[in-house]
Fold this protein.
Amino acid sequence: MERKMRSGLWISSVSGLLIVAAGFSGCSMFSTANDPVDCNVVKTQTAAGQTDAQIASNLNTAEDKVAACHGAEHDTNKTTIVPEKGY
């Protein structure tokens, strides 16, 4: 009987540790540190007269990521077909 209790306790402990480890590793998934900056937002705020430092502060990102949006435009969605009449 004692052997079954130890086995059950061991399995519960290992399962709990795995859940905790998965939780800690998953926390980095929700970090915004490596998220790309929405250049449309940057362009809108630049047009409103804000500096790169102000925009970076508003978006909680680095100023160099904001500055990267001022480069040449590039379209990553070239295969999208847009109807001529807009519907």
User: Anything to note?
Assistant: The chain has a mean pLDDT of 74.
